[in-house]
Amino acid sequence: MSHTKLSVNVNAIAHLRNRRDLPWPSVVGLSRIALEAGAAGITVHPRPDERHIRRTDVFALQEMLRTDWPGREYNIEGYPTEDFLKLCEAARPDQVTLVPDMPGQNTSDHGWDCVTNQAFLSEVVGRIQGEGMRASIFIDADPTQAAAAALTGTRRIEIYTGPYGHSFDPVEQRARLEEVAVTADAAVKLGMAVNAGHDLTLDNLPPLVKRTPHIAEASIGHAVIADCLVYGMAETVRRYRCALGDSDA
Ligand SMILES: CC(=O)[C@@H](O)[C@H](O)COP(=O)(O)O
Ligand SMILES: NCC(=O)COP(=O)(O)O
């Protein structure tokens, strides 16, 4: 049975490493363990200040995936500046996720307004797809944004799940989940595949994939790396695969 794939976001490993001028914990080494444990891919969000993922990490991961894990997916997220697009064109990930983050922003906290940014996004999506990479547009859980994203020519969106991830009251959580679900349904009807990400956890994944089993991929970083401190990377990946409905985990 098909299930939602897990892409492990390794930003937080790089964050920990960058506390010192030392090469550990190893971003490539821990990504290898995640892949060996069955993660479908690796995600990075190289920010302009290189506070966590550095340009060198982007290429080291690309080399490791290309050489040792050719079937697994490499997903690079970021705001599409010329520098970012050139980095992606050099590293050639499978997927480029376009995120509307300003330089210096603490973390991603909203999706694109695909209506007002229609022309810009259409041009960037065309450029990425023209280079043979998949483009994905990060949007809020809002079906009107899914419709506007479809007009850019993208065949994939990622729904920002922060509001769902941050809600702990059951009524509020159900309402946020419903917004994600109707957005995913609208996107699928428009012929796009759907990713999801931000503040997904072992607790909030099962209701999400039960309500929206057609989510193709979840990219998860902060909670995966936090859980690694308790369970280790391999066991953590196994637990997230189970939470995503992977019966082989
Ligand atoms: C696009 C998105 O939702 C992000 O989760 C992002 O990759 C997280 O970035 P930080 O790890 O810098 O908070
Ligand atoms: N695209 C979302 C992502 O990569 C990870 O977000 P988070 O789990 O670190 O919040």
Automatic annotation (TrEMBL):
Q: Which gene encodes it?
A: pdxJ
Task: Give the annotated active site.
Answer: 45 (proton acceptor), 77 (proton acceptor), 198 (proton donor)
- UniProt xrefs under CDD domains: PNPsynthase (cd00003)
According to its UniProt record, in which pathway does this protein act?
A: Cofactor biosynthesis; pyridoxine 5'-phosphate biosynthesis; pyridoxine 5'-phosphate from D-erythrose 4-phosphate: step 5/5
Subunit details: Homooctamer; tetramer of dimers.
List UniProt keywords, sorted A-Z: Cytoplasm, Pyridoxine biosynthesis, Transferase
Lineage, top ranks: Bacteria, Pseudomonadati, Pseudomonadota, Alphaproteobacteria, Hyphomicrobiales
- To which species is this protein native? Pleomorphomonas diazotrophica
Record protein name field: Pyridoxine 5'-phosphate synthase
The entry's family comment says: Belongs to the PNP synthase family.
GO annotations of cellular component type: cytosol
What is its biological role? Answer: Catalyzes the complicated ring closure reaction between the two acyclic compounds 1-deoxy-D-xylulose-5-phosphate (DXP) and 3-amino-2-oxopropyl phosphate (1-amino-acetone-3-phosphate or AAP) to form pyridoxine 5'-phosphate (PNP) and inorganic phosphate.
| Sequence positions that bind 3-amino-2-oxopropyl phosphate | 9, 20, 199, 221-222
Q: Which InterPro entries match?
A: Aldolase_TIM, PyrdxlP_synth_PdxJ, Pyridoxine-5'_phos_synth
Q: Where does 1-deoxy-D-xylulose 5-phosphate bind?
A: 47, 52, 107
* Keyword rRNA processing applies: no
> What EC number is given for this enzyme?
2.6.99.2
